Amino acid sequence: MTTQEELKNLVKEKYSQIANQEITVNLASCCGAGETSKEVYNIMTDDYSEMEGHVQDADLGLGCGLPTQFAKIQPGNTVVDLGSGAGNDAFIARHETGPTGKVIGVDFVTEMIKKARANADKMGFNNVEFRYGDIEDMPVSDATVDVVVSNCVLNLLPAKDKIFNEIQRVLKDGGHFSISDIVLKGELPGALRMSAEMYAGCVAGAIQKEDYMGLIEKAGFNNITIQKEKPIHIPDDILTQYLSGEELDSFKNGQTGIFSITVFAQKGQTTSKYKAIDFGFEQGAVCDPNSGCC
């Protein structure tokens, strides 16, 4: 894993395979890649089953959050789902935007696009489309989108700065995104960091939380808010595939944390800036989804 193109090809290859795996395999592994755990049934994902618009065949168990729950999608909106997979978040977004809206899913894995289109056809959805394309160079026109969502995808791609710039480009002024992703606090052990399976498993490609938030700010977004944050615990029976007993103890007792965050940010219309306390910015509100604030 040395060049950005090699990393992207790795992701394409792995997710071509993952597209046809059982959801139980994906849930019990790190985003469908590598070994499955016998200790933990569901490592990363949140439960979509109670959300309006959920389509079971489109839920591959590959997310790390519920970005559409927080995305403030309104009837008639145009929504883009980055790394749309088999269509799970796109179909949730379709329910929110209604018959007068439009949802565009973008993915660069052919097998995922095929599954998503088949699911849309089976459900008779005519205002959801799935486009083959790279989210670093989206097949979407400038300033045409109200809301962008994405679920555990940006961590898989090396040029995250390009992706945030592309989101800025396609959003209308006042438009916003809600993205769930994996970030780090502290350095991963070398064996995890260098593993191709852990890269495809949404872990080795994750960057430091403060760096991630900094890329959002650098791309020119405002009102940056962490809507939800939760720790990700990789079970021992997966970690032991990569780490010795001593390394495992050091990792578990050290300062490194793996987290899922759901982040909101807006294009234009500045009213406030998010700055996380741990890197010297003004603190944005962290929303508890149970409080009704989102």
Task: Write a brief structural summary.
Helix content is 31%, strand content 21%. The chain has 294 residues and is an alpha/beta fold.
Describe it.
The chain is of the alpha/beta class and 294 residues long. It has one domain (4-291): Vaccinia Virus protein VP39 (Rossmann fold, 3-Layer(aba) Sandwich), CATH 3.40.50. Helices cover 31% and strands 21% of the residues. Mean pLDDT is 89; it is low at 272-294.
Number of helical regions: 11
Major sheet attributes = 8 strands, mixed
Architecture in CATH? 3-Layer(aba) Sandwich
Tell me roughly what share of residues is in helical segments.
25-40%
- Would you identify the regions where 5 or more consecutive residues have pLDDT less than 50? 272-294
What is the straight-line distance between the termini?
Answer: 39 Å
